[in-house]
Design a protein that fits this description.
Strand content: 25-35%
Distance between the termini: 47 Å
Strand order of the largest sheet: 1-9-10-12-13-15-14
Helix content: 25-40%
Shape: globular
CATH superfamily of the largest domain: Metallo-dependent phosphatases
Structural class: alpha/beta
CATH architecture of the largest domain: 4-Layer Sandwich
Length: 550
């Protein structure tokens, strides 16, 4: 795809690539789970985008994927597309819900391209194709092909655009691990090729057909550690091994990287949920009829409390926002006590037990594993709304039941315990005791067993006194284990689950199961059952102090 966008006769020019990633349905500068303003979202990013364009009109704007799914606003709209109606009791607003809200806003902001992310598949191909049709810009993915490999490619592999007289190519790459996470019908007719090989083919074709001056890879995958598994996150591998790429914009892992170099490749990752805008500046010098990159630099421009939202984006999103608020304010249950999840990664929590109860029930499982995705959840005694229930589970994951074993569970818990650092008994009193390289959403906690996490022991040997139904858990004990679809695919270091037999999977997202479960039962758990704990006690006190200092 070749797009012309002006020309230049100067001997030097600066071309800017503006980038977002992992927007996850964040349009309003608003936290739907707390009903409070938040410094994020596309409405605020729009102001930063326009400021960057004023600073340098020779710009193009791209998104690295995971765009249409994530917030309750996105979920309510996707359910509307899937079922042709809104949740019970809600009416379609007079202005209608005429298109995917993210595509409406991004088209207004004149995005040049978007990369296909794995979460685009969460609601199935009907939703994906509807959103794609609503976009006035291409969706890119060089490594997504038809199941047979025959016929027209389902997505353009790259975009080529003339910006300020400079020919810029943007290659799209999608993490190929989607079949490990999604139900087959959600990607029917498609297959996902190895990312490195697809990037090499795209660069070769660009050189032959288009001879671009700048090549940017926009990759929906993370920057894995040295020697790490490249099946899901392969940015480091592509940067080091695929010649001809000038810069990489990447996402998926919800981290942020203002600028990092691997060889001659500049890497940048904007913050997820629209919390920052990425900008790469290429300073170009003319050499005969061609341009050469003389210098390149990158930075992240954060959204702040002082960033004014774009009123046009707010207006486009308003019908979707208002119907979402009505849905979230619907009462569904009661809580007999005030509940607080702030220490739920340090000690057992009734709010996490509430999620575990749902997973054990629907998966008919012996053991349930889940992370505390939102330590900020607070529930007052009294009525509990959909908003509060939804806040317990931020992601649109599905529930799986796996045929597992005691050995598999022990390995999973040891992997989870990497969230903490090792300390001697004396050092446990000082800290820090959490590993910043392990995201909290990868610290899974088990229900259905009792156990301790001993921080005086090295990673891989921390789980002790692991018991099932009161007895020591043997490695060969058969277990039916409830996990989400991402864990079943081995994400977050949980490779022990990859390839395990899936004996059941839900047809609804876990968040919807939670709402249904407590709508039927009417009450949340009053207190945790304290089936796990961290030792020694002084480590717990240090972790409490670390949590309070955040």
């Amino acid at each position: 795809m070749l797009v012309l966008a002006g020309a230049a006769t100067a001997q030097t020019v600066t071309v800017s690539v503006l980038a977002t990633t992992d927007l996850h349905g964040n349009l309003y500068p608003y936290d739907y789970y707390t009903a409070r303003p938040a410094d994020r979202g596309l409405a605020k990013l729009a102001t930063l985008i326009e400021a960057a364009r004023r600073d340098n009109p020779n710009s193009l704007l791209i998104d690295a994927g995971d765009t249409i799914q994530g917030t309750p606003l996105a979920t309510v709209y996707q359910q509307f597309v899937r079922h042709g109606r809104l949740p019970q009791g809600l009416e379609t607003p007079p202005s209608g819900l005429r298109a995917d809200p993210m595509m409406l806003a991004m088209s207004y902001l004149r995005y040049d391209a978007m990369v296909l992310g794995n979460h685009e598949f969460n609601f199935g191909l009907k939703v994906l194709n509807r959103a794609r049709a609503d976009a006035r810009f291409p969706w890119l993915s060089a490594n997504t092909d038809t199941e047979t490999g025959a016929g027209r490619k389902p997505f353009a592999p790259y975009l080529v655009k003339i910006v300020g007289g400079v020919k810029v190519a943007v290659i799209g790459i999608t993490t190929p691990a989607i079949p490990q996470w999604e139900q087959p019908e959600n990607y029917a007719g498609l297959r996902f090729l190895p990312a490195k090989e697809a990037a090499e083919r795209a660069v070769s074709e660009l050189r032959t057909k288009h001879r671009p001056d700048i090549v940017v890879a926009a990759i929906h995958a993370g920057l894995e550690r040295e020697g790490g598994d490249t099946g899901e996150n392969m940015v480091r591998q592509i940067a080091a091994q695929v010649a001809g790429i000038d810069a990489i914009v990447f996402g998926h892992s919800h981290q942020q990287v203002a600028g990092q170099r691997i060889g001659g490749v500049l890497l940048m990752q904007p913050k997820n949920w629209g919390a920052s805008l990425g900008r790469i500046d290429f300073e170009m010098e003319r050499e005969g009829s061609r341009w050469k990159v003389s210098r390149k630099s990158s930075r992240l421009i954060p959204v702040t409390a002082d960033t004014e939202p774009d009123p046009k984006v707010l207006g486009l999103a308003r019908p979707y926002h208002e119907v979402t608020e009505k849905y979230l304010n619907t009462p569904v249950a009661r809580s007999a006590a005030a509940l607080d999840a702030s220490l739920g990664r340090i000690q057992d929590s009734a709010l996490l037990d509430a999620v575990q109860a749902v997973q054990l029930h629907y998966a008919r499982a012996d053991v349930s594993l889940t992370a505390l995705f939102n330590p900020g959840v607070r529930v007052a005694a009294g009525p509990v709304t959909v908003r509060q229930i939804a806040a317990l589970y931020l992601y649109d994951n599905e529930l799986y039941a796996l045929e597992g074993s005691g050995k598999m569970l022990r390995e999973a818990l040891e992997n989870a315990a990497r969230f903490f650092l090792t300390c001697s008994d004396a050092a446990c009193a000082t800290g820090p005791l959490t590993d910043r390289g392990v995201p909290g959403f990868n610290f899974d906690i088990a229900q259905g067993v009792t156990y301790e996490i001993d921080l005086t022991q090295p990673a891989g040997r921390r789980i002790r006194d692991l018991r099932f139904r009161g007895q020591p858990l043997s490695d060969d004990q058969p277990l039916r284990i409830a996990v989400n679809n991402y864990r079943a695919g081995g994400s977050g270091g949980y490779g022990m689950f990859r390839g395990a037999k899936i004996v059941w999977r839900s047809s609804e997202e876990i968040r919807d199961l939670i709402v249904a479960y407590y709508t039927g039962r009417g009450a949340l758990p009053e207190k945790p059952d304290d089936n796990w704990r961290i030792v020694p006690p002084r480590a717990v006190e240090t972790l409490r102090a670390e949590s309070a200092a955040k």
